[in-house]
């Protein structure tokens, strides 16, 4: 799986380039062995005139990649580029990563119905899966398990069926070998929704940072003077008391409860647990959360409750607390423990 918000930004910029009369290419990491700056599924875009958005290597390989992107755009055919950063002094100098990386470069033309379908699905925040054969470029886009665009007729039925199973079950972009053929498979799922209960001053940096990290943020607070675009420009706004909100409309969300008013926090906690949450983080001491749970007839086994929310980084200021809170959100989203990387041989392993 790759971040749909990154893909959305790429296609928005690609569409702008089309409006400017420029041809474009989408670049994505398809395979990594050893250490690399980013994982498979990472994307960037380039135009024929050298405009770029995103990065695959932190700026070390992009100028070389642009040369290959120019050729792919001119030829109208995908290209595979391999970098061995462990052996080449030229490339490993200053990069700090000693692995190998494969990058696929796909020309993205405004007249291509395949990429138009992908762009539309990404813009509408729909689940979209790609299966692209390497290096031929035979490609199919799936919505769920239904092919919606591409070269479905070019694939034998057994290959198509295996690809459908692959794209739907995998959590990371990868290269899959199906019937002796190499396919880059990547499923882009909608961004996770984060409900922040409370529009106090300390919620402002939490909302801003979470939005930058790919969450779709909604602020739930009945106070109009606090819960608005002036303080939370990157969020949606639910200006009601928690007990007036419909849990069915907020299902499968992530929650951060930080009202600083116990009765409102209890109502928010009750609402979150009714909404089949993926994560419920509560600000404040664990004893306070235990009391609130008892008051609403629940306990720590009633849902995925994290209290106190945040990683232990010694946070004191509201910005530091926001980093602590969002760091835990990212760790849980990625299935990580939120530990120090110090001494690890592999960063992404």
Automatic annotation (TrEMBL):
Domain XdhC- CoxI positions: 18-84
Q: SUPFAM superfamilies recorded for this chain?
A: Nucleotide-binding domain
Kindly give the InterPro entries that the UniProt entry links to this protein.
MoCofactor_Util/Proc, XdhC_CoxI, XdhC_Rossmann_dom
Gene3D superfamilies referenced in this protein's UniProt entry, alphabetically: NAD(P)-binding Rossmann-like Domain
Q: Residue ranges of the XdhC Rossmann domain?
A: 194-329
- What PANTHER family does the annotation carry? ALDEHYDE OXIDOREDUCTASE MOLYBDENUM COFACTOR ASSEMBLY PROTEIN, XANTHINE DEHYDROGENASE SUBUNIT A-RELATED
Q: Would you tell me the protein name for this molecule?
A: Xanthine dehydrogenase
- Species for this entry: Kyrpidia spormannii
């Amino acid at each position: 799986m790759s971040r749909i918000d990154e893909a959305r930004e790429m296609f928005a910029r690609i569409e702008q380039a089309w409006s400017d009369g420029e041809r474009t290419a989408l670049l994505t990491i398809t395979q990594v062995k050893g250490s690399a700056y980013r994982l498979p599924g990472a994307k960037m875009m380039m135009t024929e005139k050298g405009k770029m958005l995103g990065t695959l290597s932190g700026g070390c390989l992009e100028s070389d990649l642009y040369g290959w992107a120019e050729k792919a755009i001119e030829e109208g055919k995908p290209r595979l580029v391999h970098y061995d950063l462990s052996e080449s002094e030229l490339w490993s100098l200053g990069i700090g990563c000693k692995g190998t990386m494969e990058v696929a470069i796909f020309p993205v033309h405004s007249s291509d119905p395949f990429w138009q379908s992908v762009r539309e699905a990404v813009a509408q925040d729909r689940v979209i899966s790609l299966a692209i054969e390497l290096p031929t470029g035979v490609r199919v886009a799936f919505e769920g398990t239904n092919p919606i665009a591409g070269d479905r007729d070019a694939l034998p039925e057994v290959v198509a069926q295996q690809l459908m199973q692959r794209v739907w079950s995998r959590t990371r972009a990868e290269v899959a070998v199906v019937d002796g053929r190499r396919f880059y498979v990547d499923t882009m799922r909608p961004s996770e929704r984060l409900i922040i209960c409370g529009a106090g001053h300390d919620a402002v940096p939490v909302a801003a940072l979470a939005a930058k990290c790919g969450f779709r943020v909604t602020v739930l607070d009945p106070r109009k003077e606090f819960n608005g675009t002036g303080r939370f420009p990157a969020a949606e706004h639910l200006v009601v008391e928690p007990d007036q909100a419909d849990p069915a409309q907020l299902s499968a969300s992530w929650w951060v409860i930080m009202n600083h008013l116990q009765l409102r926090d209890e109502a928010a906690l009750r609402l979150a647990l009714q909404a089949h949450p993926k994560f419920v983080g509560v600000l404040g001491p664990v004893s306070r959360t235990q009391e609130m749970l008892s008051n609403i007839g629940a306990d720590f086994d009633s849902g995925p409750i994290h209290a106190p929310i945040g990683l232990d980084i010694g946070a004191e200021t509201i910005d530091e607390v926001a980093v602590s809170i969002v760091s835990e959100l990212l760790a849980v989203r990625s299935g990580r423990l939120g530990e120090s990387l110090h001494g690890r041989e592999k960063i992404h392993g």
